[in-house]
Amino acid sequence: MKIKRIEHVGVVVKDTEASRKLWEGCFGIPLGGVEENEKRTLALYYIGGSMVELIAGKEPDGKHQRMVAEGKGGLNHICFEVEDIEEALAELKSKGIPLLDPTWRIGHAGAKIAFIDPKATENCLIELAELPEGHAH
């Protein structure tokens, strides 16, 4: 699946190593780098001029691990612009990733959209969107 762009977002996760399997294996986004300090680990994913950063706390009672334990990890919504939504959905289905929308539907600005089930993405609601031809970014 080709993801064209996203806006910068941060995603709180329990473990960056486990989460990398989803971001790299499922979405095919190469790891841009890892940053660590005594409190947290970041796995950075650059897409065009933007970035996703996966944030995992190292301290068992630190804020990031508490967020995960309280069910507040992840984020509400992120939208990936894809080149071909039908191809993207077929690839996700072939990898066993559950979808809230097994087929696309029309969303904002006439885009073809579909949502991935948050159960497959550490409670992160992800929307895929194929923008209409000629739509300005």
Question: Could you give the topology of this structure?
Answer:
Elements: E1 3-5, E2 9-12, H1 16-26, E3 33-36, E4 40-47, E5 50-57, H2 63-69, E6 78-82, H3 85-94, E7 105-106, E8 112-116, E9 126-130
Parallel strand pairs: 2-5, 6-9
Antiparallel strand pairs: 1-6, 3-4, 4-5, 7-8, 8-9
Q: What would you note in describing this structure?
A:
The structure is a single chain. This protein is α+β, with helices and mostly antiparallel strands and 137 residues long. Helices cover 20% and strands 32% of the residues. Strand 4 (40-47) and strand 5 form a beta hairpin.
| Beta-strand content | 25-35%
* Span between termini: 19 Å
What number is the mean pLDDT? 88
Task: Kindly report the spatial arrangement of strands forming the biggest sheet.
Answer: 1-6-9-8-7
Tell me roughly what share of residues is in helical segments.
10-25%
Strand tally: 9
Quaternary status: single chain
Give the overall silhouette. elongated
Summarize the structure.
The protein is of the alpha+beta class and 137 residues long.
Please tag this protein with its features.
elongated, alpha+beta, five-stranded mixed beta sheet, four-stranded mixed beta sheet, 3 helices
